[in-house]
Amino acid sequence: MTANEPRFHLPGMLIGGEWTPTGENGQAEVRAPYDGALVARVPAGGPRDVDRAVRAAAEALRRDDFPRSDRVRVLEQTAAALNDRRDHFARAIALESAKPLKTARVEAARAVETFAFAAAEARTFTGDVVPMDATPPGAHKTGFTLRVPVGVVAAISPFNFPLNLVAHKVAPAIAAGCPVVLKPASQTPVSALLLAELLDGLGVPAGWINVVTGGGGTVGDALATHDDVAYVTFTGSAEVGWAMAAKAPRKKVRLELGSNSPLIVDSPSDWQTAASKVSMAGFAHAGQSCISTQRVYVHRGIAGGFLDELLPRVEDLRLGDPMDEHTDVSCLITRDDTARMKEWVNEAVAGGAKLLTGGEAIDHGVFRPTVLEGPPAGTRVQCEEIFGPIITVTRYDDFDEALQMADESRYGLQAGVFTTDLGKALKAARSLHFGGVLINDVPTSRADQQPYGGVRDSGNTREGPAYAIQEMTETRLITLQP
Asked: Which parts form a coiled-coil structure per UniProt (predicted)?
């Protein structure tokens, strides 16, 4: 294979059942973040491509030629086909995003489950019977509700889970009966296009699945603000997400955004297990996850032992090529992000934090997994989303103090608490203002069927097939008067 030969040959983007090899702005190259290898060439779409795709989706909705039984079949067959091709998809994920191959395999397996859960929900979701005769005006009336598709769905996905987060948008939309126009992240469109190929090959009617590749400022904005789009599902940064919602005030804009997820490790607790889990939860995919464990608050009485358990595990993580079967941590998505890590670490150390391990970049944009102790509250590593392989450790004396520090954030996606005290666990569950509070687990844990999402700057939705289908459908009341 020559240097200019792409690893994946893709037919283009899918619009109205037809594959288009070039976009309004020509083509773009997808390069591997680790070594710059050419992964694929994809269309560089623009607003005219978006308009064609949305019109095709709107026409599909009017045709109404994708009945529920067919949608169930497609979802089930997609789950089976993904399962058969997990390694193929995992290699695409690893190449385009620099996610280590063994972690990419986990993502591919999760996408199988996401489609399987969506298929199960597609078989069973339904409306309700309304007791109209419970009041005199409803006497002799029969009432029930239907769950009808909300309309055309615009799905905008991020780079860090280029297959499974696409699945979390596309699979529920298919289940709900909503045509989709997908814009994958411009850095990582390959997995999404491979998935679209798979769906197209399973007989999805024209216009029900459309994929337009291109940048957020061109394709993303045009898609979110298009008059024929009824529902926008966006995963990405808080700044971009809330700005997008402001541009589309009359649409349902559902946002799954970032966080700086806290973990409280109390005494008494199984702090050894906590340290073991943190050693991966803070550094998997180089910390590029919105629920990556970032702020760790450890009771002062166990902090020394916790760090003694944690630091050797962090230092033993294997760094390097994402295609190496043994790699634990590879590079960040861009070299600018690697430089940002160093800048944020230097700021924290200048403010008084102790650098316990890491803190430097090595070859190919890999940043060494980093542990900082005691950064001031106002430093960026403590109050912003790092989205990189850095965790902070802060000692505390009182559990209420730890709850307060964990909650002092503009984000609120998931929080974790390790404790063997049931009263403290219940207090944390009630008081922490997050979309999820995980007891005796790290905040980085997610099951694909759970209601997943946050509050505050972390978003305004709950994903997971059952919950997404609810939001992608509207309730329609039907009454029958004899």
From this structure: none
| 3-class secondary structure, 2 | coil
Whether the bond into 33 is cis, omega within 30 of 0: no
> Taking the C-alpha atoms of 51, 54, 60 and 66 in order, what is their torsion angle to the nearest 10 degrees?
150
Q: Residues with catalytic annotation?
A: 256, 290
**Domains (ranges, CATH) in the chain?**
13-257+459-479 (3.40.605.10), 262-448 (3.40.309.10)
Mind listing the pLDDT tens digit of every residue in the chain (482 residues)? Answer: 566 899 999 999 999 999 999 999 999 999 999 999 999 999 999 999 999 999 999 999 999 999 999 999 999 999 999 999 999 999 999 999 999 999 999 999 999 999 999 999 999 999 999 999 999 999 999 999 999 999 999 999 999 999 999 999 999 999 999 999 999 999 999 999 999 999 999 999 999 999 999 999 999 999 999 999 999 999 999 999 999 999 999 999 999 999 999 999 999 999 999 999 999 999 999 999 999 999 999 999 999 999 999 999 999 999 999 999 999 999 999 999 999 999 999 999 999 999 999 999 999 999 999 999 999 999 999 999 999 999 999 999 999 999 999 999 999 999 999 999 999 999 999 999 999 999 999 999 999 999 999 999 999 999 999 999 999 999 999 999 99
**Using an 8 Å Cβ cutoff, are 182 and 158 in contact?**
no
Alpha helix positions (H), 264-351: 271-281, 300-315, 335-350
Which one-letter DSSP state was computed for residue 367? Answer: B
**Which residues neighbour 149 within 8 Å (Cβ) at sequence distance 6 or greater?**
61, 176, 177, 178, 472, 473, 474
